Amino acid sequence: MKKVGLFYSFNSRKTAKIAGIIHNSFSGDEVQLVNVDEVKKEHFLEFENLIIGVPTWFDGELPNYWDELLPALEEIDFSNKKIAVFGLGDQKGYPENFCDAIGIMANFFEEKGATIIGQIPVEGYAFEGSKAVKNGKFMGLPLDQENQSRLTNGRIENWVANLKNDFN
């Protein structure tokens, strides 16, 4: 498997915890952790496979660090890259925009030519709406640490197993 860049904010505690679990689910040094708080656009060019970690803030918004980084990535051609997105959200507190950030990020990279992998069915989640849903599936892995934390490890395990196949 080609080396994977796992991009997330090291300062976002819950996202960092999930990124650590995902990182440990891969073997060896297949996955390199990249802090988006300090990243330059050139870092995205170092990998053919990327995992993007992003929580949804407030009413379906990207965190500031991603929102400020995306304009710098506008000029990059991602057509030779496979990208998987995971995100955190709250189905009960924000049911009308659950994990919207997954959809925002996946759509951004897809528009730049990337192949989005790691889609999962919406079954098992209770929400009203989400920008992360496309063709009846989530465009990445949504995790709800507030209401379904007991399901997190199993969801990650299944997701990573699929990513290992898709990244080859």
What does this structure look like?
The chain is α/β, with parallel strands linked by helices. It has one domain (4-167): Flavodoxin domain (Rossmann fold), CATH 3.40.50.360. Helix content is 30%, strand content 21%. It has 4 helices and 9 strands, in the order βαββαβαβββββα. Strands 1, 2, 3, 4, 5 and 9 form a 6-stranded parallel beta sheet that branches. Strands 6-8-7 form a 3-stranded antiparallel beta sheet, with helices on one face. The longest helix is centred in the C-terminal third of the chain and has 16 residues, at 152-167.
CATH architecture descriptor text: 3-Layer(aba) Sandwich
- Broad structural category: alpha/beta
Query: What form results from the Cα inertia axes?
Result: globular
Helix share of residues?
Answer: 25-40%
- Total domain count: 1
How many strands? 9
How is the main sheet built?
6 strands, parallel
Average pLDDT value?
Answer: 95
Q: Catalogue the unreliable spans.
A: none
**Alpha-carbon distance between the two ends:** 5 Å
Q: How are the secondary structure elements laid out?
A:
Blueprint: E1 4-8, H1 13-25, E2 31-35, E3 49-55, H2 64-73, E4 82-88, H3 100-111, E5 115-117, E6 120-121, E7 133-134, E8 137-138, E9 141-143, H4 152-167
Parallel strand pairs: 1-2, 1-3, 3-4, 4-5, 4-9
Antiparallel strand pairs: 6-8, 7-8
Quick gist of this model?
This protein has 168 residues and is an alpha/beta fold. The protein contains 4 helices and 9 strands. The strands form 2 sheets. Strands 1, 2, 3, 4, 5 and 9 form a 6-stranded parallel β-sheet that branches.
